[in-house]
Description:
The chain has a domain at 15-140: Leucine-rich Repeat Variant, CATH 1.25.10. It is built from 21 helices and no strands. By secondary structure, it is mainly α. The protein is 72% helix and 0% strand.
Amino acid sequence: MPQSRRYLFISLGLVLVIIVAWLSLRNTAPVMPASIKHGYSEALAAARTGQPGAARVLYQQLARPDISVKRRVWLHAELPNYPSPQALKLADADLQNEAVEVRLAAIKSVVGLVPGGPRSLLLGPMLDDQEQSVRFAAINALLGLSPDDLGLYFGPLQQAIDSWEQVLKAQPESAANSAQLARLHLHNAELKAAQEALEQTLRLQPGNLPALVMQIDVLDRQGQSDAARQLLAKQLKNQPDSAYLQHALGLWLLHHGQREYALLGLSKAVELEPDNKDYRYDLATTLHDADELEAAQKQLQEIVQRHPADRKARVLLINYWKESGQLQNVQILLAQLEQMNPDDPSLQQGL
């Protein structure tokens, strides 16, 4: 099993640890820190830049009942980089917030804090939210999970998807509606219907690159790999400097077992958008799987330097340093992580 896959399984195990700890906290009254009513700006800046104590002040601000809706939404955008039972408790509390915008932000926080199946435990109940936009956001957050992952919420999710399909079909035709229909069809493995919806999306909005990449995926799933390759090649010929398409090319080649060529596409995407941490992360993991450990470490170091709060890159870099026996670097990064968030589950599990 490749190392990056092993780390994924480890991270899912840590998620379960967080869930268990969160369940023990869920019914306890929130503890309001006897702290300042001022300090929001400092807390947000600390969270965004990964400063020591960032998690503590972020949690303090989210625990305040007097924070405005806009400020609470901005705080939630940073919360996934600071996982802990307390973070999950705060996100769960705001799933019940009276403001729709806050509930939507809390759903995104849960997605960031809880990858994969365990999130259905938290977000399944949101399928019954009184606000339509919140129900739809919960559906999107659960799309792609297997029936086993969804558990008791498999049936409710299918019902919610059916209802959303009816809403979309009754609305005026638009690229956004067609693309959303495609995502719903794809979840249900309705590949022909998904392809038709994507073709309609691209008729209405030819430059919709996410829809184009989704169409390539749908063609692949239908066994039409040549058609998918030709479509991707055509678009790249027209837009060779599109980082999005270069990244898609890299992932497509990787999926088809052509890692050497995939690295070229992924590298080109990073060259075109050097500040895109997702592109750089994918390049790093692919380099690692190609046994180019030093090059992978450099890419992750660049992410941490540009985005100090990025926990995912920091934790993976710690693992890569350990793998190469560079324990001094491991200790430095672990110390920084502990200063930022001493309750990080990776630290608790002895990363």
